[in-house]
Amino acid sequence: MPDPNVPAPNEHHLIAFAGCDYLGLSKHPDVIQTIRDALPELGVSTGASRTTTGNHPAYDLLESTASEFFASEAAVLTLDGSLANSAALEGIAAMEEGLDRVVIIDELAHPSLTNAARVSGFRIERYRHRDALHAGELVERTSATSSSVVIVTDAVFAATGVLAPLRTLAEIAERRSAWLVIDDCHGTGTRGSNGRGSLSAESLAISDQVVMTTTLAKGVGVAGGIIGSREELGTAIRSRATAYIATTPIPPALAVGSTTALSLMAHDHARHDRLSRNVKRAHELVTEAGFHPIAAAGPIIAFAADNPDAITAHCRDRGVLVPTIAYPGGPSERYIRLAVNSEHTEDDLKQLAQALRS
């Protein structure tokens, strides 16, 4: 059976309501041009770990730009967002070496968070999805027997777009002197002041207890991962985390592109305004078409349907990509997950509405 998400050979153009390029920066001419300009001199790889001979000023500039953008003392660049999670928890484990360590993790957290906890040597306890009360109960119970407790969650859950109760989790972490590690891969670019993320949106700050990880490949539109933390943890990551030490970094030209993209995010208010308008309108149109998104707002619009593949095929035939996916954490085994970005036009949204209604 043909995959309804893949255009047939004779189809050359679809309006894509898919993916995670929420601000359209992957195709921004300034981002592309800075990468083109950097390639002849910098090449496509440093060919080594940053801790040996693979460092480059482009990485240092990206980290300083990210530190300013996310308001963190330290910003550590990793190969991608998944390795940012591993490096963050490895760094915490190094700081808490010799202690009994446990991670309290949302049961629908991104798989990379569970993997990161496992490889970093943490015992894993799971709390019910977005249930801060249950998380608090587990923290209370485990903190009596464990010397180091880390609460771990996505800020915006990738499959559905729903939000974690970050403020309550931060209060629990502060009360019990626990760490809180927040994966903000889908909040970066979509939430907070000029896309600075979920901590900005929730009036929280990176601190001795609160750590932020994110990707530069979604809302930022290029490549890499970032850990925002206090300087002490940043130092531990750089000196002890194999996910940082034993990896070759992103191509330096892409680091230049990511720096450009972050600078654009910080100043391009119109792009953020367009995303907000498109998100609001898309939710209205999907609801009017008779579907019920899991999240009430945000660019991720996911819903269960009796025959999602048929919906995808139907929309594809009308020039619109509305993908059916089987990504972990969704409302059913296979479900619709469409995504809105700042570069969708009003005509694009109208075509989406017509495809969903017809």
Draw up the topology in text:
Blueprint: E1 15-16, H1 29-42, H2 57-70, E2 74-78, H3 81-95, E3 101-106, H4 111-119, E4 123-127, H5 132-143, E5 148-154, H6 166-175, E6 179-183, H7 198-201, E7 210-215, E8 225-229, H8 231-240, H9 242-245, H10 252-267, H11 269-288, E9 300-303, H12 308-317, E10 320-321, E11 324-325, E12 335-339, H13 346-357
Parallel strand pairs: 1-10, 3-4, 3-5, 5-6, 6-7
Antiparallel strand pairs: 2-8, 7-8, 9-12, 11-12
Describe the structure.
With 358 residues, the chain is α/β, with parallel strands linked by helices. Helices cover 42% and strands 15% of the residues. The chain contains 13 helices and twelve strands. The protein has helices at residues 29-42, 57-70, 81-95, 111-119, 132-143, 166-175, 198-201, 231-240, 242-245, 252-267, 269-288, 308-317, 346-357; strands spanning 15-16, 74-78, 101-106, 123-127, 148-154, 179-183, 210-215, 225-229, 300-303, 320-321, 324-325, 335-339. The strands form three sheets. A seven-stranded mixed β-sheet has the order 2-8-7-6-5-3-4, with helices on both faces. Strands 9-12-11 form a three-stranded antiparallel β-sheet. Helix 2 packs parallel to helix 10 and helix 3 packs parallel to helix 4. The chain is globular.
